[in-house]
Each structure stands twice: as C-alpha cells, then as structure tokens.
Amino acid sequence: MLVHTVGINGGMTFYKSIPLSNQYYLEKDLDEKIPKNVTLYTDEGYGFLWDRPNHKSVNHSRKSKDPRYNMSRERCVTKEGVSSNGAEARNNILKQSFRSYGYISPKWSQLYLDEISFLGNVRFSPDLREILLGKEDLNLWGLSIRTARRTIGSFAHTNPIRSSLKPRKNKPFKNYTNPLKASPELDKIYATKTLTIISKLFPKTCGCSNPNLVFHKFKVRPTIARCSNCYKQVSITSNTPLDRFKLPLSYFSYILENQILSYPKSVTSSEISRKLNLPYNSSYRLKRRIQIFCSLLNEKLREQMYQELDDHYKKNPITLPKEGDYREIAKENPVCVADSVILFSSSLRANSFRARKYNTGTSSIYLSNSVKNGEQKGTLCHTTGVVGKWTFYTSIPLTNSYYLQKDLEEKFPKSSILWTDQGYEFLWEYKNHKSVNHSKRSNDPRFNMSRERWVTKQSVTSNGAEARNNILKQSFRAYTYISPKWSKCYLEEFSFLANLKFAEPLRELLIGSSVNQGNSLCSKGDSNPHTLRHYHLKVACLPIPPSERACMWTG
User: Fold this and answer.
1) In whole angstroms, what is the distance from residue 11 CA to residue 3 CA?
2) Following DSSP, what letter does each residue of 118-142 receive, concatenated?
C-alpha cells in the first residue's frame, strides 16, 4: 500500500492511497488539495512541479563536504529553512497507528486512511467536534446522505479562528464529558472498587486484639474505616500509593482498568487528561501513582517467578549436553531469555554526529563530552523473562558484566536454562547457559549471513527476548520522550501490565466482575453488609481482611 501524505504544518492532514508514485497521481492529488500559489515544501521526488512558483525541495541524500562526515546537515533542513519534516512526522504517526492492524488489503486501504485522517483533523473544527461528542443536538436522521454530507461539511469550515492548533496542557478538555461525573452510579462502583483493591493489597489494622474494620459512608472522608470492636478510625489509603489522594477515588481504578485492557498500547498522561477531562498536571500525577502501584506489585511477581523456577529445577535438575538438539528439553522445562534494547537514544547531532562510538556497541544513550559533559539522554533497558510467560524490564546505565549479572541473579536461579546472544559470555556460573551468534557468516559463498544467526542447530535462540523488545519499542512510541530519571517507573508499569495475565487472582481483583454491579451495595449506599447479610456477598461488601489474609494472590 502506497500512501501520499498532504497537509499543513500545525494544521490538517490528508492521506491518499495511490498505485504509483509518478507524476500523474502525485500532481493530481496535490491539485485537489493545495492551490498552486501556496508555499509547498517537499523532497526531491517532486521535481516535476513547474507550475508552482512557491515550491521548494530538500535533498535527503545530500553528502557532506567535510571528509570527516558522510551525510550533510542540510539533508533534513536546508539553510533557507526548507524542510519536509512535517510530512515525515505525519508518516511516522500513520505507521505507528497502523501497527495495530495485522494487514490491510489495498482494496480497502482508502477507508482506513480516511478514518485516521478524519480523527486527526476533527480537532480543527470545534463545531463538528461538539456535534460528534454530543454537545449539540443535531437531528440528521431525517436528512438524506447527500444533505447530511453538506451539513457536516458546512460545520467543518465555519469559525476557523476558533480552531486551536496547540491544545492547552494545563487546562482540562471542555469538549469531552467525564463518564464518571456523568453517571453517579458508575462513579460509586469504581470508588468502591478502588477501596477494595487498596484494602486487599495494603491491609490495615486498628491494633486491637480482634480487629474488624468496616467502611463507613463519610462524604468528606470516603477512605475512613472504623473497627466495630474498639471503634478506632483508620485511613485505608495512608502509607499506600493513594496517600493524600485529592482526586475522586473512582479515577484510580477506572484508569487502571483502562490500562490493563489496552495493553500493549500505552496510556499517556495526555490521554488520561482527555478521558477524565482533567488538567495535564493532575493526570500526570495520577499516572505516577499508578506507576508506583504497579512497581510494588511487580516486585511480588518477580519473587513469585524466581520461586517457581527454583522449585522446578530443584525437583527436576538438568544439565544440558554439549552436543545435540535441545528442542525436546525446552518443551519440558521453562527457558529463560535475556537481551538489551535502547530507548530514545541520543541523536546524531547531539552526539557529535556519531551514532556508534568507535563503530562498535549499541546506539549511544550518552551525549558526547563536548555536549553537557556527557549527560545521559537515552534509556538502556535489560529485558529478561521466561519464554511464553513472565517478562521484566530493568533500566541500567551500562551493558557490562556487573549490571547484567546482578539483574540476572535477582530473577533467575543459576540452575535454570538461559539463552542469550554473545553479549553474555561472562556467565560462567550458569551451567545451562547457551548463546547464539547474531553476526555469524554463511559458509556458502552465495550468501552473506548464516541461517544460524537467529536459531542454531541446537535450537538455541533469543527470539523470545527480541520479540519482547519489539513490543516494548512499539508501545513506547506513544511517548515522545522519557527521561532516564523516570524510566524505571515506566518500565515497571509496562512489565506489570504484561505479567498480570499470569496472576489470575490478582487480575480478577483489579478488573474482575466483583464490583461491576450497582445492586451489590446495600440500601444505605455504603459497602457494609447490612441488608445483604443473608445473600451472596460481593468482594466490595466484605469487611477489610486481616493482615494474615493479605496478598493471597501471590501463592
């Protein structure tokens, strides 16, 4: 599928599916969308546009005159300021969005392109946006399709002054209705769900001999529970990720459930701001609390994985032979994999035009010493996991033996089967460690690289870690940039969302159907079992569990 992208910098964008990138199709599409007297920036593939006096192009293949460098700075932006980066950025957004589709037939490609083009352009027509979001009542059911098209088209071109090119990040989105505020019953359900999650995972006690904490209906203090024996009041959210939480409690479980169901798609702070109609700063702090919550639970999952591997290899000790096929052994035993990946590496210009230092190693995550004293800009992620099951990501400063081996010893027993690439040759204590050479050359002179650079004859491969790295990079494209200072929070959050499906009791607690029915609450409106004492009680109606019953999902 060949797509022609046309748009205005900071304005609307349109995508067109064309069979060939020749003069006929390109010029025809441009004549339909852009007047000939408008300034037009493209690359050198549009040299046939002689009838456009304001057309300028940039050469992406321009070589540098300096013998020390290969490419020129002006291949992206010329000295006159001509650049096609606006179209390149739109193409990048299009490719990221279409990754969710496995394949699109060229027969239906224009429908998909018109859809994403409309979703991107509707923000520049406030009146049409209000109609679609239900702010205005427009009855189109009695109109014909042609009349409806004319009506919607008129709204798309009215009041161009009201179009906002850059959304205000510190103010809420007024064009979106918060579903929790629109439905008080839904807000009460998610608020009760939040209290249930916090009380189950972070149990509190009043300190008496027979604690029995129950929730109370306090409008100003909804997180307060009182013991029915000593009558002492305890805050459910104190010393938890929701300590001093000022937003409604329903927001936490609502966004957490949305993130779990949206995996592997990342839910950014801007998206939270749009969904809940919150200022950007409030949504940013809400996401940070969710990240801390996921980090604490992910540590429990890591301990559970280590214990499972240790128990398995103690009951079934194994030593891999030096020769032979390991395929049958891998089917009967869990196989651990490890690899590293770079996120948001430093650019060529910031790194003194060097993507690889001394032409070796991975892409640099540090600036050169001449730029901010070698400050770290990118994130180096160490990916570990079990094939077909757990996955964990760790942010490390360097790929040396100290950091890699320390991370592996925290997650994998030394008796487990471990498959990596050749960057882990220092693992002498792991007797079942095997590696694959990704740079292996072919013995056949007809080919350059060997087939065994991915899977050896012994069936050793690190494709399990490579696939996880691919998912991580695709998901993190939603973030423009992540500072290395906060990279651990983002990686722990993504790791927890990936591992949650292997902890079924925990998943049922977070997104289960335990509090998704409004009739589970009693007639007084709180979560205490008053009139429901003789019926089947939901999880939210039960009192807060004692300390010894907490975190039973890890077993």
Assistant:
1) 19
2) HHHHGGG-HHHHHHHTTSS----TT
CB crowding 358-387: b at 16 or more within 10 Å, else e? eeeebbbbbbbeeeeeeebbbbbbbbbbbb
Q: What does the alpha-carbon distance between residue 370 and residue 374 come to, in Å, rounded to a whole number?
A: 7
* End-to-end Cα distance, the chain: 50
Asked whether residue 103 carries a pLDDT value surpassing 70, the answer given is yes
Phi and psi angles of residue 195, each rounded to the nearest 5 degrees, phi first = -65, -35
Which residues, 6 or more positions from 180, have their beta carbon under 8 angstroms from its beta carbon? 186, 187, 190, 248, 250, 251, 254, 276
Closest CA to 174 of 205, 118, 208, 129: 129
* Percentages (nearest 5) of helix, strand, coil residues in the chain: 40, 15, 45
pTM of the model as a whole: 0.71
- Check pLDDT > 60 for residue 105: yes
Partners of 293 in the β-ladder: none
Summarised one tens digit per residue, pLDDT across range 452-461 is 888 888 888 9
Beta bridge partners, 420, equal 435
Q: What DSSP element (H or E) covers 109?
A: helix 109-121
Residue closest to 340 by CA, chosen among 426, 436, 469: 469
H helix or E strand, kind and range, residue 382: strand 379-386
